[in-house]
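Standup notes
- DV: blocked on the single-chain target, sequence here:
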Amino acid sequence: MTATTSARSSALATGRGKLILALLCSIAFLDFIDASITNVALPLIRNDLHVSVQGLQWIPSGYLLTYGGFMLLGGRLADLLGRKRIVAIGTVLIGVSSLAGGLAQSEGRWSRRGSRRAWARHSCSRQRCRS
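- DV (later): unblocked, structure below
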């Protein structure tokens, strides 16, 4: 009975297993923080966008529905391409997008007015726009 117990030792008994567990726990922590940030930003969203209290409840719901859809997509991609690769790609993608959002000094080119200007610049040439 001791031979079968030692043959089936836990993956967490190794250093690599503990490192994988720490990585997955940190990823889950980032997910929880993202959901909390969405709730913390609700008063600012309400004031800036003039959203009613009833409409405000759709923001976390939409975030979580989108998150769940991407979780399903990520699970399917992990089945097709491999779990390690998808976890690495997803972690890098979230990290880069969070870094870009954190380093943004203003709404800049993503604002409504800035996007209209960019669209006008790219959609017509100077000769057509002048006439």
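- Follow-up: Helices lie at 2-7, 15-40, 42-49, 53-56, 58-81, 83-103, 112-123, 126-130.
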